[in-house]
Amino acid sequence: MRRLTRPSRFWESLAVVIVKPLSLLLVKRDWRHGERIPREGGIIIAANHLSWSDPVLLAHFLYNNGRWPVVLAKSALFKVPLLGHAVRSLCAIPVYRGSSDAARSLHESAQRLKDGGAILFYPEGTCTRDPALWPMVGKTGAARLALESGAPVIPVAHWGAHELLPYGEKRPRLFPRKTFRVSVGPQVDLSTYAGQPPHAGVLREATADIMAAITAQLAELRGEKAPENPYDPAGR
Predict the structure, then answer these.
(1) In the prediction, which pLDDT does 97 show?
(2) Under a CB-based contact definition with an 8 Å cutoff, are residues 156 and 47 in contact?
(3) Which residues are in the Phospholipid/glycerol acyltransferase domain (predicted)?
(4) Bridge partners (DSSP) listed for residue 193
């Protein structure tokens, strides 16, 4: 059965009418290397995560560069009246954390990739806890999805969403107007792992390659040198 990789015309138009003007009003743009995003075929967009606002701002960026982002969202959102219907209609994929259904989101993502979707994936799994806001050690879901599906991984870094809405805060900081910076890197080379069984060691190494590619783009955006070792919330 073919899965939706783009919403109906009504829901797409509604989202665009709301998100694009709001995004343009709230932030200035510094968008780089959008041409590196393939316009067709299943792809994994692997991005860093700074704020609850960055999925919306990234969605605007990806839409302007020819792709409708299929977002992975907490399963609880799908149960909220009206909001749940809207999230589902916009082709989001529910993420079931800490349950027997946890693997369902990866299975659903794989189906969407086969149908040509662009999956927006946050390998960290949550907003970074690094004190300097660099990407953390990633979880292996994106790497597993890439190795099992063969879909290209496109690293995307962004900076500025945290200034608009810092993690944990509910009220945005509107003034002065912030700049949302985005940089797209070349496709992550995972050819080293082709044909290898996706055991834990392979997945960790592939994940490290993906996170390194995202971090390199973020270092370019920030004009700073990234730390040699990413922050590990498990090991501190």
Answers:
(1) 76
(2) yes
(3) 43-161
(4) none
Instruction: With residue 178 as reference, give the H or E element that holds it.
Output: strand 178-184
Q: What is the 8-class DSSP label of residue 62? A: H
The answer to whether 226 touches 134, Cβ cutoff 8 Å, is yes
**Are 78 and 27 within 8 A, CB to CB?**
no
Give the 3-state secondary structure of residue 181: strand
Parse the chain into domains and list their residue ranges.
9-222
Q: Using N-to-C axis directions, what is the helix angle for 54-64 and 9-26, rounded to 10°?
A: 110
Dump pLDDT digits (tens) for 197-233.
Answer: 999 999 999 999 999 999 999 999 999 999 999 999 9
DSSP H/E element including 56: helix 54-64
Query: What predicted TM-score, i.e. pTM, was given to this entire model?
Result: 0.95
- Whole-angstrom Cα distance, residue 11 to residue 133? 34
Fold entry, domain 9-222: Glycerol-3-phosphate (1)-acyltransferase (3.40.1130)
2 has a pLDDT exceeding 60 = no
Residue appearing with tokens 């969202």? 73
In one-letter notation, the amino acid at residue 105 is S
In sequence order, the 6+-apart residues with CB closer than 8 A to the CB of 216 are: 155, 157, 185, 226
